[in-house]
Design brief:
Number of domains: 4
Number of helices: 26
CATH architecture of the largest domain: Up-down Bundle
Structural class: alpha/beta
Helix content: 40-55%
Length: 721
Amino acid sequence: MDSKQLLLPTSMPPSLVLADVEDDGHTLPKSGGVRRLSLGMFQVAYGPPLRRFSLKSFRESLRELRRSAPCATRLLLEIYLTARTAVTVHVLAAMLLVISPAYSLYLSATILGVVEETVLSRKMTDLDVSMLQGLVLIWLFVAVMSTLATRIMADTALILKGYLRAHFLPELVDTSLRLDLPALQSQKAIRSLPGDYGFEWEVPGFTFFDEIVTRLRNFLTVVGEVGVLALIICRRGLHEAQLLAFFSLMLPAIMLLKPSSGVGGAGWVFWATNRNFYYLAALHKIAFSHDFRPTLARDGLCAYISQEYKRISAELGYLNVETISLQSSIQVRWYWDLLHAIIADYPLALCALILPWADPLSTLVSMVLVQHASTTLKESIRMLRGDRGPDTLLEVLGWAERLYEAVALESELNRGTAEYPRPWSSTKGMNITFRNVSFRHREGAPLAVSDVDFEIPAGSLAVVVGANGSGKSSLLSLLPGLREPSAGEILIDDKPLAEYDLDSLRGAMACLSQDEEMYPVTLRQNMLMGRGRDIEADAEILRAAAHMGRATDLIERLPLKYDTILDPAAVAAQSMQGCGIGHVSDAAMRELEAHGPSFLPTPVSGGEKQRLAATRMFSRLLQRKDRVRLIVCDEATGAVDSCAERDILRNMKELGAGQTTRIFVTHRFGDLVKEADIILVMKEGRLVQRGTHTELMQEALQSGGCREYADMYHAQADRIL
C-alpha cells in the first residue's frame, strides 16, 4: 500500500495528499529556506533539496577539496602503514570487482555475437563450438573470481577493522580521559569521539577508507561499463546502435537525476496538526507500560484510562497514526517513477516496441543485450549514486579531518604545572579559599554560584547546608577542577587552583557525591582500580573499606560477592532476526547461558548503591591515606538509613582526622553541625551565613539577624520529633 495512503482517512483521495512541492509561493510557503507540505494530518517541513550536481558551487568544492585533501591523504597513508597486507589485498580485490562487470558485459556481447553469426550461417564447425565453450568458461570464471573477490574484501575488512581499532582507539581513549568535563560535553567532542556504546561496531578510520574505496570502485565500474557499451554500439546495426545509445544515455540520466525522496533528498521533520494524536500516544503508553500500572491501580484509574482512550480514538477517527512510513520515505513525483519503470525496469518491453522486426534474430540479440546491460549498469549506477548515504565525497574526505581533530582535542580548562602539596602546605589538610567566586553551567544560564567568598582553614571540619538548588553541589564541583569559575578565584594553600597540575591536585582529594555511579566492572576492580597487584594487602583493604562503608553484609549476599558486576557493559551475543535469519533455538540460548557472560544487571537499591560507593571511597582513602588532604562528601548518604549514615560519616571524620580538611553536605544535621568548625549556608547560589552552629543560632536571636540556618535546623528537629 502507498505510504501516503497509510497516513490518510479512507475518504481522502491520494491525489490530494501531497501538496505541490514547487516553489510557487502558494502551496509551499517558505520561511528562512524551509518548505512545507501536507501529508494527511501531518505537516512536513524540509530544507532546500540536495543538489548532487551544481556548477554554482564548483569553485567552493575545489577550495574544500584543497583543504581536506592533506588530512585525507595522511589518513590513507596511515591506514596503509598500519595494515599494509590487508589494505593491499582489499584494494586488489576491489579492482577486480571494477573490471569484472565490464568484462562480463563484453563477454556476453561477444557470445551473443558468435551465436548470431552461427545461426545466420546455418552451420557450426567444431572450431565455433570450441570458441563458444571457451568464451562461456571464461565468463563463468569471471563470475567465480568476482564472488571470491567479494568474500576476500569482506575478510580483509574484518582484519583491517582489527588493526585500526588497535591503532586508533587507544589514542582516542587517552584523548577522552585527558579532557575536562566541559570539553567532553562539547558538541565538537560528541561529534568526533566514539560513543560509550560504540565498542563493537565503531572503528575509527574504517568508514572513511571503505567509502573512498567503494566510491572509487563504483565510479570506475560505471566508466568501464559505459566504455564497453560504446564498443558494442559500434559493432551493431544502425537501429540497434541507436537503441543501445539511447539506453546508455537515458539510464544513467534517469537514475542519477531522479530525487531520492519527494522533498529532493533533504531531511525532514513532521508533526500532527490534530493534538489528539499526542494525547492518544500518552494514553497508549499509560495503558501498556508496566511502570504506571501500580500507581494506576492504586488510584483506581484503569477504567477511566480505558474510556478516555476510546473517546479520544473516536474523535481522532480513521486517520492512520503510523509514522514509520513517513519517517522512512516521502514518495517522489509520479513521472519519475514512470520514467524509471520504463527505462530501468522494463527495457525489454521497450525494445520489443521500438526495434524493427525485419531481422528477428538481430532484434532478439539486441533485446538480450539491452536487458543484460540495463541490469548490470543499473546496479553500478545505484551504488555510484550514493544509496550508502547522502554524504558527498567532500564530506567523506572531511571525516579524516574530524578524526585527527578528535585525537588533538584539548581541555577547555586552564591547566597549571605546579605539583601538590607545596613545600609550605600544612600537614593538617588542605587550606581552601574562595574569593568572590561565581559560576554558571553554560553561557547565558543563570548563576548557580554568585559572588561567594569564604575560607576553610587546613584541618577544619566544614558543613555546607542549604535547600535543594541552592548551589551546594555546583560550589563543590569547582574544587577538583571539574568546572572553572565564571568569575573570581579559588586558592588551594594560598596558590590559585588554576596553577596546579590537576592530576596531582586530585590525587590529594577523596570526593563522594550523591549520584556516584559504579563502573561496569567487578566490585573488586571498582574498589582497587589503579592499584598494583598485592593480594594480601588488597584483601585487607577490601575488608576494612566494606566495614567502614557498612557494605560487608550486602557484598556477602551478592551471588559473586566482590566479583559481581552490578551493571555490565552489554555486548551483542546473538544474531538479529530477519532477512532470512530465524529465531535462536532454546538449545543455543542454553549454550550461551552456560558459556557466555551474563549481561543482566544485579538489582540494588539506592541506599545499597550509596554504601558501595562509600566503600569505594574508603578503599581509595586507605590506599593513599598519606597523600589525601581533602575529603568531600556531597549528600552521598541521603538514601541510606540513619544508623548507616551516622557510621559512614563518623568513619570519614575519624579516618581523615588530623591530616585532612573535611567538607560535608547533608540534609540530616544531627551532631555533625555541632562538631563543625565552620558552617556555610547557601541560598539561591549565594553564601548567606557562615560560622559555627552556636554562632549561627545566636545570630537568629538578634534583631534583624539572618534566620536561614536556624529555620532549617528547627525544621530538621521538628521532623525528627
